[in-house]
Specification:
By secondary structure, the chain is of the alpha+beta class. It has helices at residues 3-14, 103-117, 143-157, 184-189, 216-248; strands at 36-40, 48-54, 57-68, 81-88, 128-138, 167-174, 177-180, 192-199, 204-208, 211-212. The chain has a 5-stranded mixed β-sheet with strand order 1-2-3-5-4. Helix 3 packs parallel to helix 5. The termini are far apart. Bound molecules: adenosine-5'-diphosphate.
Length: 249
């Protein structure tokens, strides 16, 4: 463990996640996102792909299709099926995670599929599926938000017609304060986590979950903070796409 991690562990032991100067354990302000990096077009065999580093999260997404839905009885003659599969690698967390699907990954796959469906113009490709594989290589809380954001980038890279990008970010409550984008220590020892995803052009909310307790006032503050975070992440998504287009030209 390096010195910084050591200090963080010590402070966490003291039970304090926000210091007297208002800074969080990783030095962030309450309304500050973790450092985010995005790259598009990282897999050759995928129709579209993206790699996102969001704080200590590392996530790779590949999009395959639209391709004929198999077996044929699952085909929808009116629209394509969106199938996201979220997987956390066994080496992605400090204690080895048991490989394979579990209740949590099934839930996250479902909510990501539903959120993306709200944006994808799936009537354009009936009888097909679009398969989206989300591989969490390293996890440090907020992986559903980072994965959803990366999936939308990969879909755009694949040229899938969409109303808008889907962009996601969480807010929550830590040491009785509403904060943006919780990291692992805050997620573990905090009081609430509220992941939100929006279509930024319309402001439509396509995902909202709440783990923990918030008062009405805190809830409103957290939603507004998460939406502001989403808008910042949206700018990064656009920048990553522009860079990849620039490379092709
Ligand atoms: P999210 O990653 O979207 O915040 P959770 O709140 O369920 O989703 O998980 C928070 C964090 O807890 C994950 O990002 C990961 O770091 C850790 N975690 C989740 N599942 C496991 C697991 N099975 N083993 C170890 N750590 C886990």
């Amino acid at each position: 463990m390096n010195t910084k991690e050591n200090n963080e562990a010590k402070k966490t032991e003291k039970g304090k996640l926000i210091e007297d100067n208002g800074k969080r354990l990783d030095g962030r302000n309450l309304d500050e996102l973790r450092k985010i990096q995005m790259k598009v077009g990282v897999l050759n065999r995928a129709a579209g792909s993206a790699y996102v580093e969001w704080g200590k999260n590392k996530i790779l997404v590949g999009v395959y299709g639209p391709r004929e839905a198999q077996p044929r009885h699952i085909q929808n003659p009116l629209k394509g099926i969106i199938q996201a599969t979220y997987n956390m690698a066994s080496f992605s967390v400090s204690d080895r995670k048991r490989p394979g699907p579990d209740r949590r990954s099934t839930e996250i796959s479902k909510i990501i599929s539903r959120a993306l469906e709200a944006s994808i113009l799936s009537e354009s490709f009936p009888r097909t599926t679009i398969d989206i594989y989300l591989e969490v290589l390293e996890a440090d809380a907020g992986t559903r938000c980072a994965s959803l954001t990366a999936a939308s980038l990969a879909l755009a890279d694949a040229g899938i017609p969409m109303k808008d990008m889907v962009v996601s970010c969480a807010a929550g409550k830590v040491d009785d304060r509403v904060v943006l984008d919780l990291m692992k220590e805050e997620d573990n020892c905090g009081q609430a986590d509220l992941p939100v995803a929006i279509l930024p052009k319309s402001g439509e909310i396509v995902l909202m979950q709440l783990d923990g307790h918030l008062t009405g006032e805190e809830f409103e503050k957290a939603v507004s903070l998460a939406m502001d975070g989403c808008k910042k992440v949206y700018e990064m998504q656009k920048e990553a796409l522009m860079k990849s287009v620039g490379k092709v030209i």
